[in-house]
Specification:
2 copies of one chain form a homodimer. Chain A contains 9 helices and 10 strands. By secondary structure, the first copy, chain A, is α+β, with helices and mostly antiparallel strands. Chain A folds into 2 domains: about 80 residues, Arc Repressor Mutant, subunit A (Orthogonal Bundle), CATH 1.10.10; about 170 residues, Chorismate lyase-like (Chorismate lyase, 3-Layer(aba) Sandwich), CATH 3.40.1410.10. In chain A, the strands form 3 sheets. The first copy, chain A, has a 6-stranded antiparallel β-sheet. Chain A has a two-stranded antiparallel ribbon with strand order 1-2. In chain A, strand 5 and strand 6 form a beta hairpin. Chain A starts with 20 loop residues before the first helix and ends with a strand. Strand 10 of chain A pairs antiparallel with strand 7 of chain B, so a sheet runs across the interface. Chain A binds a DNA duplex through helix 3. Chains A, B: Pfam families: GntR, UTRA. Chains A, B: One of its GO terms (biological process) is negative regulation of DNA-templated transcription. Chains A, B: This is GntR family transcriptional regulator. Chains A, B: It comes from Actinomadura harenae.
Chain lengths: ~260, ~260
DNA sequence: TAGTGGTCTAGACCACGAC
DNA sequence: TCGTGGTCTAGACCACTAG
């Protein structure tokens, strides 16, 4: 980026504006990013260059850059510089992604979709254990208080970048002693095993919320500042209407577009 | 909140931690908020009190508070103090919210849901005009380039607080000269009028993304720092599979839970 | 080693809110 | 008026990256 002259900004506030100086600088840069003057991946001028150009203190420049960072427009790399955030490859999650026809191809949902998108999927951080369900999970699964559930946690990555964590809860009375309790539940995943066991799936209910990530989520998903997460809580019901599984998923929101089909009647 | 003594934090960094001081302060406060020591609505100690307690510069305290603000945990009010963010009343959007049986009650979706939730709904900022569709809208509506669309913009509020903006795009060849072009489209809303005109609705496709809001969105939805927005782009199809409307909706994510029903087959 | 961003200090003046 | 947070300055030292 070439710094053009903005005399009005020098020596304190622009008299034509009551906006704080750091906001005016942030607005300049935001506009440059949105109109393409600064393209994704481009390096911004250094803080020192901004200080010289605008004739302000370094903290004022940093406030402007911080503002853009919390908007998710730029990212800073210690020792390298500040860059316009590149747009990651987008993953679309379709509402039919748990349809039986997909399970019958023998692949779990994540692996099947990734393969078709041409990215290299990996799964790690698998923990499988039994616990007493917390109040919310127990309510969703219709469990008695104190009833045990099987908890399956895993993290999914594409081309080495984490994109999603998921934690499944299955009543222990269903899962105990079956392949669902093993690290690898086999072809088609947990849902295929549930159907093998006679719990034919009828439908799913999915709740979607969004919020800023907690520090532990930033770490596990390697998130950048300014990127919210989607929280999905999905309940699987069998054909008789009984809940058989709850899955709590955290998605990095810059990677995902969720698509749903809604009925008109 | 009563400030307990944290000698380890005084006089610079805790030698047992390589975390920056402002992060340690933020972590303390985050924990107090999450374990309930600081309840929603509570006032935090003033910056001056933190400065005296931790024996750090004011900017260090402000960095910690800024951190919590971008996480959406606290909000600051100029001249009053910093407060633990109160949780607003939640609205659930169900996937059957555009079902015909709801339209037939004669109410548009937003008003019908709000009434049942006991909140006072208002709609303002209505603009109705004809424009040339941009590339994305034209693609979704299957329009020729340059073909005009009717654009309907409005903002919805509950009990005086804005919660949602929506912009509808309807091909002008369908809407022109009908009640759809008027400010008040009549009972049941635009969808009811489309069906009156013979465009019987078949289904909707909804795309959900989340991101940090742009400054104009912060203003129009009166958002606080640290709250992402949902972006919904919904396309309405008639029973013959032709798109008849696209609706672009921005939701404040701390007010909404989206719920969807997914098929298992 | 030079340049970058990350943290921190110790002040200053201002704008807003409550009393 | 006084206490609050908002902005800004002019430095300092540190940690990371690159050549």
């Amino acid at each position: 980026m070439r710094l053009t002259s903005h005399k009005a900004l020098r020596r304190g506030r622009d008299p034509r504006s009551d906006k704080p100086v750091f906001r005016q600088i942030a607005d300049h840069l935001r506009e440059a990013i949105q109109n393409g003057t600064l393209a994704p991946g481009d390096k911004l001028p250094s803080e020192a260059e901004f200080v010289a150009h605008y004739e302000v203190a370094r903290m004022t420049v940093r406030s402007a850059l911080q503002q853009l960072q919390t908007e998710g427009l730029v990212l800073s790399e210690h020792g390298r510089g500040v860059f316009v955030r590149p747009r990651p490859q987008i993953r679309r999650l379709a509402s039919d992604r748990f349809a039986r026809r997909h399970r019958q191809e023998g692949k779990a949902a994540f692996l099947a979709e990734s393969a078709s998108a041409g990215a290299e999927p990996t799964v790690d951080l698998i923990h499988v254990r039994e616990e007493v369900a917390d109040a919310d999970i127990a309510r969703r699964l219709g469990l008695a208080t104190g009833e045990p559930v099987l908890v399956r946690s895993r993290r999914y990555a594409l081309n080495g970048s984490p994109v999603e964590t998921a934690t499944s809860y299955i009543p222990a009375r269903i899962a105990r002693g079956t392949r669902i309790s093993e690290d690898n539940p086999g072809p088609g995943g947990v849902y295929a095993r549930l159907e093998d066991l006679g719990h034919v799936l009828g439908h799913f209910e999915e709740e979607v919320t969004a919020r800023m990530p907690a520090p532990d989520e930033i770490e596990i998903l390697q998130l950048r500042t300014g990127i919210p997460v989607f929280c999905l809580i999905r309940t699987a019901f069998d054909v008789t209407g009984n809940p058989v599984e709850v899955c709590d998923t955290i998605l990095s929101s810059d990677v995902y577009v969720l698509t749903y089909d809604l009925p008109a009647r």
